[in-house]
Amino acid sequence: MLLAFDDDREIVDTICALGERAGFRAVSSTSASRLRELVASSQPDVIVLDLQMPDEDGVSALRHLADAQCAAKIFLITGMDERTIASAEQYGLRRGLAVFATLQKPFDPDELLARFEKAHAAIRALTPADLEQAIETGELVVHYQPIIRRFADNTWDVAAVEALLRWNHPVRGLLTPESFVSMGEAHGLSRAMTDFVLQRGIEQLKGWEAQRLRVGLRVNIAATLISDIAFPDRLERMLVERSVDPEALALEITETAMLEQTPDAFDILTRLRIKNIGLAIDDFGIGYSSLTQLFRMPFNEMKIDRSLVGRIVESKEASIMVDALISLAHKLNLTVCAEGVENRATLDALAGFGADFAQGYFISTPVPPVEIPRIIAHWDEQQRHPKARSSRPPR
Ligand code: G
Ligand code: MN
Q: Near ion ligand 2, which residues have CB within 5 Å?
């Protein structure tokens, strides 16, 4: 939805026509006094505002939009000089408004159309075609979050990294999987996305190996892939082609995904384990798992969800549950990784419970691959000087 305000009917009609060509629904008014009402009732994505209108000046209109915490992309159009627009733009930006473009009258319709199209591209829902194109043009990237391993003396080193998909979108910025993975999965793109992460991750392992850095790789697997009978052999081929030891790789599957599985899942998971690829139950503790069912699956690791781990310092119950889950997992011969470790106190408590691995913002956020060597070195350094355990590595 695009709202246009200009006291000149002809201009406002042109703006609306261009807006519609760019894909918006357009509503206009020649009176600024209708701005409040229209903004409140229509939740616009774009507002085009003439700075000089007879009944209200543009700066008071901007002030109102800022007070209302309006998130629309704002286009300022005016016949005034460049410096006046620039100052209005500064005002809007400083008040937290998304001032997207400023144009002087007479404006070039083609230029305005191009800006509208850009604004439209940034707000419309992402489509499977966008995602397919992103895979082809290399807009998808993989970031890595370090996972540390505990030694008997409660020191830690970096044992593995979890590969996490990111979409480096030219207009929308760096997107996390929440904004596109389920859309992709719903349109049959899980395999393309997962294969991309696996391929990249495996290549990256070779890259680190060339720098004499040995880390394991964890990759998240979509529920649909554990019904793809060909997956284990395809994965094995990828590993063989790059001569990567299957033991360096573990796949993470959410407990909720596991509960919807058919008998084929047992076939696939068992074959993956036979090939020595690790299997972790991801985000454990939030679903409605049947424990017996889960423990019939050939997992070798349990990753305890961050919603539980993140509360162990303040909540006695969370701490009892995590402690008990770790004991249970160990009795069932599963290693345990605690997700969502955001401070030293949490890590120390986990060490007390005997957690084997830990992951979370305290250790590091997901980072581009070039940053991993420095993080590995940081934890190695802490191990050599455990007394000087400072805090997290420098950013
Ligand atoms: O479900 P899974 O474990 O695959 O989720 C990984 C996601 O969790 C990543 O997108 C990452 O950004 C996020 N994450 C990782 N560590 C932390 C943490 O310590 N706190 C919070 N809030 N999120 C985290
Ligand atoms: Mn995961």
A: 220, 252, 282
